[in-house]
Amino acid sequence: MVDFGTAELTLEMIQASQVGLKAVGAGLAVGLTGIGTGVAEMGIGAAAVGATAENKDMFGLALLFTVIPETIVIFGLVVALLLLF
Q1: Is the dihedral of CA 20, 25, 27, 28 positive or negative?
Q2: Sequence-ordered list of residues with C-beta below 8 angstroms from that of 73, at least 6 positions apart, any chain
Q3: CA nearest 40: which of 78, 84, 11, 76?
Q4: Are 68 and 36 in contact (CB under 8 A)?
Q5: Residue 33: CB atoms within 10 Å
Q6: What's the CA gap between 35 and 68, in Å, rounded?
Q7: What's the rounded Cα separation, in Å, for the pair 15 and 7?
Q8: Where are the transmembrane segments (predicted)?
Q9: Are 58 and 51 in contact (CB under 8 A)?
Q10: CB under 8 Å to 13, separation ≥6 — which residues?
Q11: I need a labelling partner for 26 at 20 to 30 A (CA). Which of 33, 37, 40, 84 fits?
């Protein structure tokens, strides 16, 4: 005789694990892009401060170069939202 109660419990467990793995994937998408952006801005920020110290007119360009890697985090957030919804 087949016990259908355990079959429903197993299906619920599979669905719960799928939702959990989606959440892990979304967290990885945002987390890894954040780490990548931090590493990229580390070198860019140091060079931007040095360039601004030598020439005050370079501030706008240095700020632009510092902000560009932050768009990568926005892409990671979009991927995470696509995974969750």
Answers
A1: positive
A2: 30, 33, 34, 37
A3: 76
A4: no
A5: 21
A6: 15
A7: 12
A8: 59-84
A9: yes
A10: none
A11: 40
Lookup: tokens for 44: 């860019």
Residue 64 amino acid letter:
L
Integer distance in angstroms from the first to the last C-alpha of the chain? Answer: 39
Could you please report the per-residue DSSP string of the chain? ---HHHHHHHHHHHHHHHHHHHHHHHHHHHHHHHHHHHHHHHHHHHHHHHHHHH-GGGHHHHHHHHHTTHHHHHHHHHHHHHHH-
What's the pTM?
0.74
Per the structure block, which two tokens stand in for 29? Answer: 């998408």
pLDDT tens per residue across span 31-77: 999 999 999 999 999 999 999 999 999 999 999 999 998 999 999 99
Torsion of CA 31, 36, 37, 43, to 10 degrees: 150
